[in-house]
Amino acid sequence: MATTPVELGVSYAAPRRGVPTPASFRRWTEAALVIARHRKPAELSIRVVGAREGRALNRQYRGKDYATNVLSFPVELPRGVTSPLLGDLVICAPVVVREAREQGKPPRNHYAHLTVHGVLHLLGYDHQNECDATLMETLETRILAELGIADPYAA
């Protein structure tokens, strides 16, 4: 798989035990960019947080008073300004681990899925309606398959 030039910053504001390395996040990010046909250089950051920070950010930016698995913050540039900056992802480690356990899948695979999902949001994909959701889920499944990870939407 050809790679897209990526500047990726990964920071950890939660215990690192069981949390993927920056190299894993890079691999998943690059796969999402390549398969989504993003050919330009890209810059983004991923911050892995605990439940308290995840809840505070979800409350502040989405008005929902609970920690969620991944938050995507696409860059908002002024008209006519170009930049390789895509935005930021925040992944809440305790939520990822809990969801993986509930869904009977390895936490690493769930981290990969949420990273891919978040990167697609940074690229402008969403799931606000059934058509968009189907497109996004199909793309996620394809990217994860390329990484050797089973379809996260399979029953």
What does this structure look like?
It contains 5 helices and 4 strands. By secondary structure, it is an alpha/beta fold. It has one domain (6-146): Metalloproteases ("zincins"), catalytic domain (Collagenase (Catalytic Domain), 3-Layer(aba) Sandwich), CATH 3.40.390. Helix 1 (22-35) crosses helix 4, helix 3 (93-103) packs across helix 4 and helix 4 (107-122) crosses helix 5. The longest helix is centred in the last third of the chain and has 17 residues, at 130-146. The model has no long low-confidence stretch (mean pLDDT 95).
Query: What distance separates the N and C termini?
Result: 29 Å
Indicate the overall shape. Answer: globular
Lateral arrangement of strands in the main beta sheet: 1-2-4-3
Number of helices: 5
Strand content: 15-25%
Number of domains: 1
In short:
By secondary structure, the chain is an alpha/beta fold. The protein is built from 5 helices and 4 strands. The protein has helices at residues 22-35, 51-62, 93-103, 107-122, 130-146, and strands at 6-13, 42-49, 70-74, 85-92.
List keywords for this structure.
19% strand, 155 residues, 4-stranded mixed sheet, Collagenase (Catalytic Domain), alpha/beta
Which helices and strands, and how do they pair?
Blueprint: E1 6-13, H1 22-35, E2 42-49, H2 51-62, E3 70-74, E4 85-92, H3 93-103, H4 107-122, H5 130-146
Parallel strand pairs: 1-2, 2-4
Antiparallel strand pairs: 3-4
